[in-house]
Amino acid sequence: MPRIASIEPLHARVGIRNQLLVKVTTEDGLHGWGESGLSCREGAVAAAIEHFAAFLVGQDSRQIGRIWQETYRSQYFEGGRVLTAAMSAIDIALYDLLGKRLGVPVYQLLGGKQRDEVPTFPSCQSTDLDDLLAKAGVLVDAGWDCLRIYTGDFAGDGVFDPRRNLNQAVKELIALREAFGPELCLGIDLHHRLSIAETADFCNRLPPGTLDFLEEPIRCQTPQAYRTLRAMTTIPFAVGEEFASKWDAAPYIEEGLTQYMRLDICNIGGFTEAMKVAGWCERHYIDLMPHNPLGPVCTAATVHMAAAVPNFSWAETRQGPTETLGFHDPELFPVQIPLDGITYKVPDGPGLGVEVDEDRIRASRPTHVEPPHLRRPDGAVTNW
């Protein structure tokens, strides 16, 4: 029996942020890699992983579904993003480990691949309209048929003025649509900063056909808010990166509150939970549009999941030519799934297809990274 010998969180500085990897090793020396998705709060997740390791060491590493249930149900207060981020990293590592043990890619453990390559969408952002159009042109010229912009115009002192921000976004989107025509799928990430009224006002000021998807306009904790907003606009929603379980996703799937499922495999509970949500989405004709903002382990897990599901649109990539984040450092990750033009080719090697230079990772000590603490012009705190 391939028993778990150790579960170790590795917290490292990679590019402009930190990453939290997990290494699961079995008694016969085989190991697998996972990654947590709760950026900028990695210390809390690492502590949860150490709690789980206390009772997972010695267990059969192949019993992945059972391990998921035990980590979820082993405390009275179940779930929550810190715990499910820890579970996600362990679950992904166990799948990597089992794929290596059996000599097959992870997607074979999920039913086999349904596509040979995974289409992606990149992002671009600028406070200058001409610069934004130029960046979008670079992406379109490179072959992308879907891209996303951010509403990034908050002052350097941390002030976010939604009215000013949305006025700028309306001008940007209209200009982008005029420049690139109807062939381009165009989305915007509102980063859950807005209210229902602000979002509805924004949508109403866009000419029909300007926007193809609206990502995370408001927070997800209150589905009723999305029910209200859904009745106020016809623009498709892309929601789900905040979800920490199938239960979080349930009302959004069952009630049509999202048209693209933005689940994050490194937060929702790894392959075990993500594949359940994917099947549920298939029943309701909702395509996956995975959140993929991290490093090579997250990207590889996203690619294997995307390969194995029938209902899929695009995966987020942070490796486009208009972003230089450093999350896929080849010195730290000498083997990874590369971005091949505008797609990730589905690999055929065992496991995830990622190798980590442990010496470099361990030497790359994490530093404190804090997201922007935004406030409104009147001084009130608002969402990042």
- What's the order of the H and E elements? EEEHHHHEEHEHEHEHEHEHEHEEEH
CATH architecture term of the largest domain = Alpha-Beta Barrel
Going by CATH, the homologous superfamily of the largest domain would be Enolase-like C-terminal domain
The number of helical elements comes to 12
Q: Please identify the top-level CATH class of the largest domain.
A: Alpha Beta
Kindly estimate the percentage of residues that lie in beta strands according to DSSP: 15-25%
Which sequence of strands runs across the widest sheet?
5-6-7-8-9-10-11
Uncertain regions: pLDDT < 50 for 5+ in a row?
none
**Number of extended strands:** 14
Radius of gyration: 20 Å
The portion of residues assigned to helices is 25-40%
Structural class: alpha/beta
Biggest beta sheet attributes = 7 strands, parallel
End-to-end distance, in Å? 46 Å
The outline comes out as: globular
Give the overall pLDDT as a whole number: 96
Could you name the CATH topology of the largest domain? TIM Barrel
| Total separate domains | 2
